Amino acid sequence: MNGMVIIGAGECGTRAAFALREAGWSGPVTLIGTEPGVPYERPPLSKPRDGIVLRKPICPPEAFGNAGIHYLADCTARSLDPVTKTVTLENGEVLPYHRLLLATGATPRRLICRGGDRALNLRSHADAEAIFARALPGHPVAIIGAGLIGMELASVLIRNGAPVHVIDTAPAPLTRAVPSHFAAQLHQRHQAEGVRFHLGQGVAEIGADGVALADGTFVPADLTVAAIGVVPETGLAKAAGLATGNGILTDAELRSSAPDIFAAGDCAAAVQPDGSHLRQESWQNARTQAETAARNMLGESQPYAALPWFWSDQYDLGLQVAGQPRPEYHMVRRPLPGGELAFYLNAGQLVAAAGLGAGNSTAREVKLAEMLILAGARPDPALLADSAINLKSLLKSARAA
Amino acid sequence: MTDWVTACKLDDIEQEGAIRFDHNSRTYAIYRGPDDSVWCTAGLCTHEAIHLADGLVMDFEVECPKHSGAFDYRTGEALRLPACENLRTYPTEIVNGEVRVALG
Ligand SMILES: Cc1cc2nc3c(=O)[nH]c(=O)nc-3n(C[C@H](O)[C@H](O)[C@H](O)COP(=O)(O)OP(=O)(O)OC[C@H]3O[C@@H](n4cnc5c(N)ncnc54)[C@H](O)[C@@H]3O)c2cc1C
Q1: How many CB atoms within 10 Å of residue A56?
Q2: Distance (Å) from the C-alpha of residue B55 to the closest C-alpha of chain A?
Q3: In Å, how far is A133's CA from the nearest CA of chain B?
Q4: The domain containing residue A327 runs over which residues?
Q5: Contact: A363, B55; criterion CB under 8 Å
Q6: Claim to verify: residue A97 and residue A241 sit in the same structural domain
Q7: CB-based contact (8 Å) between A343 and chain B?
Q8: How far is CA A337 from CA A141, A268, A341, A356, in A?
Q9: What's the average model confidence in pLDDT over A310-317?
Q10: Is residue B66 within 8 angstroms of chain A, CB to CB?
Q11: pTM of the model
């Protein structure tokens, strides 16, 4: 019998392999991953404590054997053929599949400028080791890109005693996924810690001793890191004729345009109720899409409907965002001990929430907000703003309604 | 040998809530259930070193504030991934409104 084949052994592919077993599949499962060693979590890579990069395994090494999962590490799938239903590995071996999951993730966007190759990227454990081996106290670092990963890295490196410069073409940091008033609070915190920002600035050239900006400014740096986003790894899918765009396009049940091929995690763009495609880049999305894809590979027809959710840690501050806050939504703020919560209402319905505060101080409330969103709550904004009102009581009334 | 330690007052913990309790350089979480029963587990999530007392308590479940792993705090049983290892639990008692835990 041909089995289930998963390409990509990151958070998504690894989770999917185990989820297939949990859902009752007893046939063969093969997990193919380019990277060596046991699959590991990426979030700790930009959050090392005391300069030590953690390689946190997603599962203990023996878990594959125990679950009967055939894990091929250090092995790249070179091509796939949806007609013969086979995958060809780089060593020429041909693997037939019953159903295939593409969990190929994403790769850092390359910086196009003179000397662009001098900039290091941060995606893999090897990347993180290379960066932290070279980030020494007193040696200036230039980080190009003020997104989540660039800003996490800035917070770690400045605390390690390196002068840190952050360069971005945008006029402010964290413009993409973080609600603007929390982005502004984080920006201020970075400035207070001594991070120097060069915003609204393109890069002209990266040299051996620093970065030349478009306006002629020279930013001295012994180490330059480019964190300007990622591009979905769609090469295999495209070559095989699958529909792709900003990711491998899937239906609501994470099926690609080819029969028996599914896609999930950072590489997948799933269709939304309004017909657009949404590609997410978060740890939780990788895991929950893996679980949905695994069940649908076994014949179920569950649409993927989880609420987007991610976190980021910068200094002692923890950010969590549930749903997709948009500037046009009505925002309601609630102060919390150690932080602040923001709710986003669309025509009276709660659709997103975010929290920023010391450590995990806002996590509990963000979770309750998420449950309110999923319950379809239309809470009174005055109650949301009032810290004396327990969100649990709002949840109980929303569920009773 | 059982070492009964007074941790806090019952009223220090919200109903369906939890607080962190540190003792002898170890950390614990003490929970008050919806029925006012009191429970104690190891303080850190088994998936990553995150204080569970910051997590949401609903019924008899606590959810890790970071990765949403969940545990039954009465038994320590891991209920939802990514947590897969159970939490250690410790006996508790309420004496004159004070919560005591047996750490040993
Ligand atoms: C530094 C860093 C910090 C992050 N921090 C956070 C955070 O704080 N919070 C959060 O929510 N998210 C965070 N993320 C995002 C999160 O880690 C990703 O969303 C998640 O890893 C996506 O999982 P994935 O399995 O879809 O893709 P990936 O993790 O990219 O895994 C895909 C794997 O597939 C392999 N592969 C690709 N093509 C092939 C092929 N042809 N053959 C074999 N193998 C192949 C790749 O080598 C890779 O190992 C962070 C990411 C990074 C890089």
Answers
A1: 15
A2: 5
A3: 24
A4: 316-400
A5: yes
A6: yes
A7: no
A8: 34, 38, 10, 11
A9: 96
A10: yes
A11: 0.94
pLDDT, mean over chain A:
96
How far, in Å, from the CA of A226 to the mean position of ligand 1? 17
Interface test with B, best of A11, A310, A360, A362 (most B CBs within 10 A): A360
Would you call A361 an interface residue with chain B, using a CB distance cutoff of 8 Å?
yes
Q: Which residues of A322-357 are buried (b: 16+ CB within 10 A; e: fewer)?
A: bbebeeebebbebebeebbbbbbbeeeebbbbbbbb
Q: If one looks up domain B3-103 in CATH, what number appears? A: 2.102.10.10
Q: What was the ipTM of the complex prediction?
A: 0.87
Q: Domain holding A372: CATH number? A: 3.30.390.30
What gap in Å lies between CA A225 and CA A240, rounded to an integer?
A: 33
Q: Do A56 and B48 touch (CB under 8 A)?
A: yes
B76 in contact with A, Cβ within 8 Å: no
H-type alpha helices, A138-207: 148-159, 180-193
Copy the structure tokens of residue B87. 């939490």
In a 10 Å sphere around its CB, with 0-12 CB exposed, 13-18 middle and 19+ buried, how is residue A285 labelled? buried
Q: Is residue A309 part of a domain?
A: no
